[in-house]
Specification:
Layout: H1 2-52, H2 57-81, H3 94-117, H4 127-147, H5 155-180, H6 188-210
Helix pairs in contact: 1-3, 2-5, 4-6, 5-6
């Protein structure tokens, strides 16, 4: 009887593990599909922006440069979140987590590009506001570097590379926005406004390494938890 009970328990454990593995595989696939959908939408909006401003060659040239810079930043950010080159280090949920993070970045970029399709007057901004925003990003970056204590030795390097890539993207993107409003009386207002927007978003993004994300979240990566 004892052997029968043990065998039954073993069967239940194996079955539950199989169900979990299957469920995680499905979650990975769903996240991948969601990321692909976000990328498809981004490309559609991108084409619409290019079509709308086709005659503004200076803007299009600078926007292409900004988009290339964003792609570099996007990839560097993912590397900073998961510095270890071996995906298995982060467990079976790695594919799901990376796809979800990628999808979030893509959606944010799509939202920004949509602003260009419905271009309005830039929000009030000044050189002083830009300086304040830049200082806030720099401070948040340093806090994240100090607070995060991951085991991966490459974290510091990849975290710094991500910040460098983001700065290049911010500068290129704000240049593009300025070029779009080049015919206005004060085109620098568009540049300042865009920098302020991007600085605020970056401070929030870096918060994952400063305040952390909820404990139990399987997609922590190199970020701390609370």
């Amino acid at each position: 009887m004892r052997k029968i009970i043990c065998l039954a328990l073993l069967t239940m454990v194996c079955s539950s593990q199989a169900v979990f593995a299957q469920s995680q595989t499905e979650l990975n696939q769903q996240a991948g599909q969601g990321s692909a959908k976000s990328d498809k939408e981004l490309n559609a909006v991108w084409r619409n922006v290019l079509a709308k401003y086709a005659t503004n060659t200076e803007f299009i040239t600078k926007l292409r440069k900004a988009e290339s810079a964003w792609i570099v930043y996007r990839d560097k950010h993912l590397d900073a979140v998961w510095p270890n080159a071996d995906p298995s280090y982060y467990g079976s949920a790695f594919d799901m987590c990376r796809s979800s993070e990628l999808g979030g970045l893509t959606k944010a970029r799509t939202k920004d590009l949509k602003l260009l399709l419905n271009h309005a007057a830039p929000l009030p901004a000044s050189a002083a506001m830009v300086a304040t925003g830049n200082a806030a990003v720099d401070s948040q970056f340093k806090k994240g570097l100090k607070a995060a204590t991951p085991e991966e030795p490459l974290f510091t390097k990849k975290y710094q590379q991500a910040q460098t890539a983001w700065t290049a993207f911010r500068d290129a993107d704000s240049d593009a926005w300025q070029a779009l409003d080049a015919s206005t009386k004060d085109s620098s207002a568009a540049k300042y406004s865009r920098i302020v927007q991007l600085d605020k978003a970056r401070v929030k993004e870096l918060d994952g390494w400063v305040r952390g994300i909820p404990e139990g979240d399987v997609c922590t990566g190199s970020r701390i938890t609370y």
